[in-house]
Amino acid sequence: MCGIVAVTGYRNALPLLINGLEKLEYRGYDSAGIAIVNPEENNLICNKSEGKLIKLKNNLSQQEIIGTVGIGHTRWATHGKPEVKNAHPHLDSTGKVAVVQNGIIENFLDLRNKLEQEGVSFQSDTDTEVIPHLIKKELNNLKKLNLEDNGSTLLVAVRNVIADLEGTYALAVLWADAPDSLVVARRQAPLIIGLGEGEFICASDTPAIANLTQTILPMEDEEIGLLTPLGIELYDSNNERQYRNPTSLKCSEQVVDKMNFRHYMHKEIYEQPSLTKNWIEKYLTRNNDSNNIRVNYSFDTNFLEDIERIQILACGTSRHASMVGSYLLEQFSGVPTDVFYASEFRYSPPPVLPNTLTIGVTQSGETADTLAALSMEIKRRESLENKLCKPNLIAITNRLDSSIGRQIPNIIDISAGIEIGVAATKTFFGQLLSFYGLAITFAQIKQSKTDNEINKLISSLENLPSLLEDLVIQHNEISEKLAHEFSEIKDVIFLGRGINYPIALEGALKLKEISYIHAAGYPAGEMKHGPIALLEKKVPVISIATPGKVFEKVISNAQEAKARDSYLIGIAPKCEGTEIFDYLMPLPTADEWLSPLLAVIPLQLLSYHIAAHRGLDVDQPRNLAKSVTVE
Ligand code: M6R
Questions:
Q1: What is the pLDDT of residues 429-446, one digit of tens each?
Q2: Least confident of 60-69, 275-284, 565-574
Q3: Burial class of 340 by CB neighbour count within 10 A (0 to 12, 13 to 18, 19+)
Q4: Mean local confidence (pLDDT), 9-30
Q5: Which atom of ligand 1 approaches the CA of 316 most closely?
């Protein structure tokens, strides 16, 4: 979380910084700020404001700030409330050193206490503010050494300071006495350098760069760099100068506009039928013999033949998609599969077993917990002698240009197009489709299903786009009307079983995220073991009941809720049994395997309309960020 952008070159820095920050606002929008070197006065001009970037833009519109070197930040609060005093950039006491940071400095309290004992007075409650004070102190020490120029002095000062920092960071530093220079450094937080002509831009993510250049140099972990309009010097943690070729951006900046939709989230829900169509064209190839369909991957899948078990690491919505994936991989393809919260896996991984496939699922490709869990798993497996325990890896992501895209060679590209709404919808859908593809591949490898059964699933997937098109239109209207009934509602329960239990969890997460209504998802059979105590008239129950293995069971569980006076909403086809629902959000009758792909649509639309009806900021809900780059 938090977005960093930094530029040095020949053009006015302010518009470049603002443009970059606009592209990074998905990383946090608690506050925003910039600092620019004013070479004429040998000082820094710093401007920050609480809340979204638009406020900063309004502040700055009255001012003319000339300067070609600057840094900017959009914040997702960790230490200190979202107030101006905690907004970045943070300055040292002379106002000559400015720092923007993404990450968490875990030993900041110790460092702060020491600095305070030395007489430094702090202006913010952040962990970041220790950094400019420490750099200034270091610069004072280095002055005595008379290093070749001020840019190099700043580089050395930052290097000495980061050696004492614990935790994670991506940072960019300015010093008024080194007016052309920028120092940037990273540890477990992304930072990418864009190479323009006579100018360089460094940012947390590629969209902030794409406007200026397509040539990039992603920084490696623990690297530090000095950027001036004349060039870049990069060093690793051993202070060895690094030379490597830049690469090109994998995706050009996509122009994303809202079309006629009020919110991106609404538009993204509507994009799901067409993304399914694209996915079918991209991933399902029919050979000449039309019965022989293979899923296309960009990597060699031979290694999958030896796989005996799968572990999936993910967070939030990606975890819910993984749970559907796990159901498919076990029940359709016959491969034992476990899904882990990435944040838990890291500190309590299961014992290492041979022939295991590890799948990291993250739409952004930047989620710190998922990246750290994957790295930990790779390290512990690589350290083993047993070849059968070596890491077999796949990542499922929507961002090829992300950290995961660069780290893991076997990538399944969700190809959903950039998602702006902080609440994931179409990328969830793309993740589900990716798991259907994997389940088909494994079923073919393991012969867990007959060709007929596999082909039946494939045909159902091929028929999906037209079903989805109708479903989105129909449920948009239904949900818009139903949303009015939720004006006074404070709690909602979502029930599902089997393949649709994760969809109940996802329905609850969507509602919580954007409408701030408390919601919880349960496996329908678990209700009677406790949560049923919550039920009463004012607690609606939304139950996913799709014909198949557990249909009757779900209907009985819904009866139990109805007997406690709950208003019962069914996500189900109109068929015998579903008359018990007070309100039916109808689904088409379809193959049970496909039911999650249908059931999720009404849930997304209902959450959307409830939040929109309440007048909330649907695309940027409070306290959230699209990409969670802190642990
Ligand atoms: O980028 P990732 O898929 O790794 O993100 C994981 C979660 O942070 C994310 O799914 C989060 O739960 C979303 N806000 C869900 O809408």
A1: 999 999 999 999 999 999
A2: 60-69
A3: buried
A4: 91
A5: 12
Tell me, in angstroms, the distance from the centre of ligand 1 to residue 369's CA: 11
For the chain, give the mean pLDDT: 93
Q: Write the Ramachandran bin of 12: left for phi over 0, alpha for psi from -120 to 50, otherwise beta.
A: beta
Higher-scoring residue by pLDDT: 564, 72: 72
Distance 163 CA to ligand 1 centre (A): 31
> Is the model's pLDDT at 40 over the cut of 80?
yes
Which atom of ligand 1 is nearest to 315's Cα?
6
- Residue range 463-480, pLDDT digits in tens: 999 999 999 999 999 999
Q: Give the Cα separation of 326 and 337 in Å (integer).
A: 5
Q: How far apart are CA 183 and CA 225, in angstroms?
A: 6
Distance 19 CA to ligand 1 centre (A): 25
Beta bridge partners of 283: none
- Within 6 Å (CB) of ligand 1, which residues are found? 315-318, 362-364, 367, 370, 422-424, 513, 624, 627-628
What gap in Å lies between CA 158 and CA 138, rounded to an integer?
8
Query: What confidence category does residue 315 fall into, taking pLDDT thresholds of 50, 70 and 90?
Result: very high
Output the CA–CA distances (angstroms, integers) from residue 78 to 82, 87, 125, in the order listed.
Answer: 9, 11, 10
**Active site (annotated) includes residue 626:** yes
Atom of ligand 1 nearest to the CA of 422: 14
309-314: strand order across its sheet: 337-341, 309-314, 356-361, 392-397, 411-413
pLDDT at 61: 87
Nearest CA, atom 9, ligand 1: 316
Which of 269, 364, 516 gets mutated to test ligand 1 (max ligand atoms within 8 A of its CB)?
364
- The domains located in the chain, with CATH, are 3-248 (3.60.20.10), 258-462 (3.40.50.10490), 470-631 (3.40.50.10490)
H/E stretch holding 270 reads: helix 264-270
From the alpha carbon of 364, which atom of ligand 1 is closest?
1
Examine the residue annotation and report whether 46 is marked as an active-site residue of this protein.
no
Model confidence pLDDT, tens digit, residues 207-241: 899 888 999 999 999 999 999 999 999 999 999 99
Is the pLDDT at 254 greater than 70? The verdict is no
CA of 364 to the centre of ligand 1 (A): 8
- Would you state the pLDDT for residue 401? 84
d(CA 398, ligand 1 centre) in Å: 12
Rounded CA gap, 535 and 228, in Å? 63
